[in-house]
Amino acid sequence: xxxxxSCGGRHWGPRGAAGLLLTDPTxxxxxxxxxxxxxxxxNTWGLMGGAIERGEDPAAAALxxxxxxxxxxxxxxxxxxxxxxxxxxxWSYTYVLAEAERPDDPxxxxxxxxxxxxxxxxxxxxxxxxxxxxxxxxxxxxLQDLLDASR
Length: 151
Hints:
This protein is of the alpha+beta class. The chain contains two helices and nine strands. The longest helix is centred in the last third of the chain and has 16 residues, at 134-149.
């Protein structure tokens, strides 16, 4: 369900949304998801995530969505903190900074769904070369600084 926002836009999730900013312990990369043409702002790269459901906090929502979208098991991820993203009176987005071991194969095996065409590990210095989801693109510099500071 979309929320019609005073910013003039529409946002997914009446309780807000959250995305999993998944990195590895040495901060060499992050997991990005190529959003399929079937979804709002498709054909861009973003984070696994989605609407926060009743009774969930942002971390629980991001982990649930990452499992649904790409098969990421919550038991393989360590949540470090939440980071505010877009904030409006009617809606908000929260980044959930987490880490997991980076595998040799960059592709997540469950990353091909109706919502995503591919989910994969991307080197940090290459993220801004991808056509990012507009909100992630607007926040990427700040998030990259956060990742650099948390090494």
